[in-house]
Amino acid sequence: MARISVPAVLGFYDDAHDLLDVTERARVDEKFANLDAYTPYPVHGLEDALGLKRSWVSTAARFALLGGWFLGFLFQSWTSAIDWPVNIGGKPFIAWPAWIPVTFEFGVLMASFTNLLCMFYACGLYPRPKTVVLSKRITNDRMVLVIPVKGDEEERRAVEFLGANHALKIKIIDGFDAQRQRLIFRATPMTGEVTR
Amino acid sequence: MHGHRFERIEENSPLRMSPLVSILMIVAAVVGLGAFAYGAFMGPAEDRARAWTGMLVAGTFFWFLSMGGGSFLAINYIVGAKWFVAVKRLPESLAQFSYRGGFLFALLPLLGIGSLYAWAHPGSDYPYEGTLKRVWLSPGVHYAKVIVYVAILTVTTFVLVSKSRAASRSADDPAYRGRYRFSIAYIIVFGLAFSFFSWDVLMSLEAKWFSTMFGVYCFIGAFNSAMALMMMMMFYLRAQSKYVQDRHLHDMGTYVMAFATFMIYIGFSQFMLVWYANLYEETFYFLNRYRGGWYVLTILLPILKWIVPFLILMPPSFRTNLSAQTVACVSILVGQAMDIYWIVQPALSPEAILPSVINVLTFVGVGGVFGYTVINDLASHSKLPAEDPDLMSSVNGDYLHA
Q1: What does the pLDDT read at residue B223?
Q2: Number of domains composing chain A
Q3: I need a labelling partner for B133 at 20 to 30 A (CA). Which of B3, B44, B152, B227 fits?
């Protein structure tokens, strides 16, 4: 929850199917833009419901893989054929079948590191020493749909939409307190069934 | 993607094909097996050995397909997989071939061991006289042990398929838990019996050669080719049933791609260790397959079994695309048939030869029996396993949401 846009209306749910349905309806029927959602575990199909495009992370990882293969192969060739040639059992200096395992593993290593770091960057988890916690419940059993709003009219529409779609709880984020690194919540209008 | 949920299965008739296909399969079986019988028993004496090679290749290929189906079922039951439940009639239909005809074709090459195995002739060029290996590889012991392996594999697969089709109402049902427990026993017994079968039937063609990778190599070829065939059948099932979704095709396509990669991993590991150690008693196996024209086949195998399916199935959208999957899966199946030919034939002829007409007809004949039993099996069971408590989870994708 690194790059949350404010102001925004939050709708809390406790069921993945409900969240998927509401998200799709908010995007397709109600035309809310830049939707976001937070869940305690990966919910399959959520990226389609949010209308997210394929991320660039896998492309970066692919190039890292190819680069890792190339560099791994090159390095082994350089050490055993150019820098310090050693005759091993009469084999050619560039004994390529023996290098395939290392080449492969180096490519995988590069791709996975690139994947991890690019994922941190793309999600806004780095560089950023502190994260803003939207609600502690989303690390446990709640799922949140975030609808960024512009102006009172859209805000009213978002609250009504979430209320009509049985959100367990609705919250409004008014702003961000940069000094205390905290979100500023409006006094929350409660609708629907509020549990616990 | 999610939108519509099915509350219950309304349409669940058996998966039928036109009777013409069954008739075609019977004709193929009669013609092919007739050609084999002519070649092996009545034809010119100098060609009889090749007829037996053809039977070994064809019998092993289709026997391996059914073994791949059985192990696919068992593995999925062990890990508690739910995604495949909607399409589990397909692995069941492959596995049932093992006890409806498959075991005959696994046993039939026993009659031709005189033409197939150098160790079957006393006084042949064989350096293990007076050792246990000489006893292990002698006709009498070979008959006994291959019959035992095939019997174990056939009976356990029969029990597995029966348990797979037994009705259970919920996950607490004894039938449901029994299926899980039997799958664990099955996979242990299967791993041993299948490895011994591969060593004794295929690896002993080159009796002086040995590879600890060989059992896995054969298993993964069987597993991946069975998946490629199930992938093709799944497109037909999807066209016939609205409950089978793109999600199932995508998961199966991912499996095909992953295990094509595992195939090259095992194949390359086997080759690379022999190449690197460069020991006289190991290298001749690959040298024989480098020389005399076999080189072409040696190069084609990794292309057909890995490069083509891997590159084609890389984009996720291609895994649900019929044309792309056809190219990838046919490539794997052709590669698997060529792989078994590559294991068997160079052991008997140093110069590369194409399969003879009788070899091709034998393959078509065994394929006819295989196709007939599979079609017949699919036509005699509902196309979705209504008896399985996980069916709705698989159809609606509930297993994806914790």
Answers
A1: 97
A2: 2
A3: B152
